[in-house]
Specification:
Structural class: mainly beta
Number of strands: 21
Shape: globular
InterPro entries: 6-blade_b-propeller_TolB-like, YjiK/CarP
CATH topology of the largest domain: Neuraminidase
CATH architecture of the largest domain: 6 Propeller
Family: Belongs to the YjiK family.
Strand content: 35-45%
Number of helices: 2
Number of domains: 2
Organism: Nonlabens agnitus
Keywords: Cell membrane, Membrane, Transmembrane, Transmembrane helix
Protein name: SdiA-regulated family protein
Radius of gyration: 20 Å
CATH superfamily of the largest domain: TolB, C-terminal domain
């Protein structure tokens, strides 16, 4: 019996040592140095109710629609006034992660792949909310949603799953038929020349998109990551144009991205033990 107890104790000690070693290895990894081809031109500190901001999209007249990952509310944020000017209730509490607006309707992605449609969400009468389940599951941890370049389809990319060992994919969702494309319409090629060996590994094992947007002037895809703050910019064919590493001081946890019709880029950052913000940035590709 003593030998059994001793063996068990040694096994437990070994497991603890392995865990400690793994933690030390990860915690001592140097973060990627911030890129130099972006500039913050303006910052909006957000109210406490948006501390958990998880997604944004451009509306009009210097207003942005925001959601946060706890309450079923759409917040209308006025950039000129620097505050929330309207709150729209569309559902109960839940892990809501991304928002897009098509014509008069708002679409909100929940992390488990359920997509909510809030019809005529800016009108004064009572809002009508419907929903349907996309092809994604809680294992995919969905955090992104955007309109395509023509504005008639929704786009998303899973945060936690890869299509293959060598690619991650952007999928199309038809809001009319409620169908999700079975294959990705765009693939991020990990063997693209802009990825060095270390970054190939990072994108394959750590690239976890927290939101996306399509540039209205160029059609480029802007993929945001919050865990390891960066933007991956793809052209219309899915080829990588640039990987922009963001500084962790100003972008502790970027969770949302929106681009205005004139090309102004906004990045929303969760509070993460600080004040949540929206930064307007200029990016030089």
């Amino acid at each position: 019996m003593k030998n059994v107890k001793l063996t068990f104790a040694l096994v437990v000690i070994g497991m603890v040592l392995v865990a400690v070693f793994a933690y030390l290895m990860v915690s001592h990894q140097k973060p990627m140095a911030a890129s130099t081809n972006y500039e913050i031109v303006k910052t909006w500190p957000l109210q406490r109710e948006l501390e958990e901001i998880s997604g944004i999209t451009w509306l009009t007249d210097n207003t942005i629609a925001c959601i946060q990952d706890e309450n079923g509310l759409i917040y209308i944020y006025d950039l000129e006034q620097g505050k929330v000017v309207e709150r729209i209730n569309f559902a109960g509490d839940g892990d809501y992660e991304a928002i897009a607006v098509m014509d008069d309707d708002a679409f909100v992605m929940r992390s488990d792949g359920r997509l909510f449609k809030v019809a005529r969400f800016r009108e004064s009468e009572q809002k009508t909310t419907t929903y349907f389940q996309t092809n994604f599951t809680p294992n995919d941890d969905m955090e992104s949603l955007a309109l395509n370049a023509t504005g008639d389809m929704l786009l998303t990319i899973p945060k936690q799953t890869n299509n293959t060992e060598d690619a991650k994919g952007i999928y199309e969702i038809d809001p009319e038929t409620k169908q999700t494309s079975s294959d990705p319409i765009i693939e991020i090629k990990i063997n693209d020349s802009l990825f060095n060996k270390n970054e190939q590994r990072a994108v394959r094992t750590r690239f976890s998109p927290s939101d996306m947007a399509v540039h209205p002037q160029t059609g480029d895809f802007y993929l945001m990551e919050g865990v390891h703050p960066k933007l991956v910019v793809l052209d219309q064919k899915g080829l990588v144009k640039d990987i922009i590493f963001l500084d962790s001081k100003n972008f502790a946890q970027p969770e949302g991205i929106a681009i205005s019709p004139t090309g102004r880029i906004y990045i929303a950052n969760e509070g993460n033990a600080g004040i949540a913000t929206i930064h307007e940035v200029i990016i030089k590709l």
